[in-house]
Amino acid sequence: MLYLSLTDNSLELLETKKGLIGDEKFVSVSRKLLKEKVVELGLITDSEGLLSAFREALTTAYPKEIKEKQISLVLPGDQVVIKRFAVPLEVKVTPDWIIKEAGKYLPQDISHYESYFKEISGKNGKIILFTALPLSLILSYHHLFSRDKIKINFLSVAPFSVYAFLRQKIAEGETCLYADLDKHERYYLLDYEGPVTVFHKKSTGKLITDLKSALKKLDDEKLKPSRIYLAGEKSLEAKIEELSETLSLPVEKMSQLISDNRMQILPGQTMDKIDTGGVPLFYFDKTFGLINLAKLSDVPNFASDLKLIEERYQKTASAVIPADEVKIPVQPAPETKPMMETVEVTSKEETVVAEEKSVIEKETEKIKEEPLISENIVEYKRSQPGMFLNKFVWFVIALALGLLTVGGFLVVRQKGSISLPFLASPTVTATPTAVPTVTPTPTIDAALKRKDLTVSVLNGTDKSGFARTTADKLEKDGYTLGTVGNAEEDSKETIVRIKESKKNFLPLLFSDLKEEFPTVKTETLPSDDKADAVLILGQ
């Protein structure tokens, strides 16, 4: 299976393969930076650019090319609607009641969305966790990947993948705030059951100011996190102790959490067994979460029935997207504001209200004719312990019975599965964990000084002056320069050779090189070399 996390800035890919007894292992990893305005707030704005970047990420994967044709995909959370609403004591929860309540928060009628809900038992009664994603957005990615005969088996959004990653870190009754620090900062408030609320805002450039503003917004909604997790490149140099003291809340970096060698994504594969080819692990937090998410049965899968979604979109959309072409933005909603921040709709045109009421009444009549729930909204439930059996146990049973009944066939059917929005056999634990094999990538130490790393730059290409230009850039960043010249032989790829004692500088060096060299291979430099690191520039 190929797990793909997509943001406005990059693609992160992790490929896994299953062994004879169902054990899953990482086999390839890749990261590709996107050009500007290829994806904006989760919407495809340059389909050719995105597809080209995806193809390149497949061919340049480490340690080998990825050829998998089935993917699990997690999109940015900007276009998702996530809302919780209380259930009055006198109300019986039914799909038509949920549709009516959800209509208060959706920019369009619910027929334009793939929607899910989960009923939660709270201290003050029942609560509905409702989530919806536009049909047009789902189909835009489906059509795009279909051009390369790629099938999307599982589709979700970042708030849910982050929840799956942090799930084991959140105790009942607690909430945590995940802050993805970028030009547009994303904030996901999570509790034991899933996302509580999501919102984003433009960065002011001052971390403490931005975090205080986010906490103020939550406080206005009577929400208070128990802990804050900082993600994104801007989090690397954050001073955790100062932030924790100023905000009066525990603050932790996702990069530190991911570097915990006790964590597992796949059984038996801890973080110290991961080899990403030199790409820092913290870039893959949403991809790690996606691996856990795709194996759970209490989360929505927005690609559970793409054929049905296509049929529904044909009926509801004013313009149909051709199956062989993706136009953007494909969002049918006329809204200019991203839908990630779930702002309550307090007033609407009378005609729109009448139209929504009419649609809701039609949906309600349709629901009454059907046994459980409408096609527009699906309940997803928490998996039960006895729902799935360990694959290894099945293998042993099958082998034993096969030896006893030579020439016979054994058919084992799993019972008790819930055919709701998705079905995926989970691993024994959903605890966050790992990717391919070897040296764990250290996180950036805020105390590191670039001048303490002597870097030699060697040109392994036929580009004249390439080494000098790169060396000047590193010197300007603050590094101490060693030898600048030509490599002994041409190199097809860019390589960083670094002494074992200086490997804690790798994430910092990669961060400074990422724009010019998004993919860099790492090797160990002999301890007696005059330089601390040697950068060999490849084709």
From TrEMBL:
Coiled coil: none
Keyword field contains Transmembrane helix: yes
Residue intervals of the LytR/CpsA/Psr regulator C-terminal domain: 452-538
Record keywords: Membrane, Transmembrane, Transmembrane helix
Keyword hit for Transcription: no
Pfam family, one: LytR_C
Membrane-crossing residue ranges in chain numbering: 392-412
InterPro entries, A to Z: LytR/CpsA/Psr_C
UniProt protein name: LytR/CpsA/Psr regulator C-terminal domain-containing protein
Organism: Candidatus Gottesmanbacteria bacterium GW2011_GWA2_42_18
